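The instructor's notes for this session suggest beginning with a concrete chain rather than abstract definitions. Hand out the sequence below and ask the class to guess, before any prediction is shown, which regions might be ordered.
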Amino acid sequence: MKRLLQSEIPVRISAVEEIGLGDRVAVAIRKNQDVLGFIWVLEVNEPLGEPELRQLQWAAEAARSQLDRLQMKSRKEEKSYHDFSGSY
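After discussion, reveal the predicted structure:
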């Protein structure tokens, strides 16, 4: 997990057979230095190649934009609620 939190690129994570986790790749979804979440991909039949790893990194960037929009919307709704409830 530490590697994943520190890495700007996708990280390969070895299988943990005892608990049923196969080989996988994960990438952190970041906004500046904050981690907003992760994308996890199982490597079932073969390891991901460089093109797939680039796509995974692109997906994390796209997800960041979407998560950022959702957070902004949530903050606006929360502010509106507080403004409305505080006016009485």
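Then share the key points. The mean pLDDT is 89. Helices lie at 2-6, 50-85.
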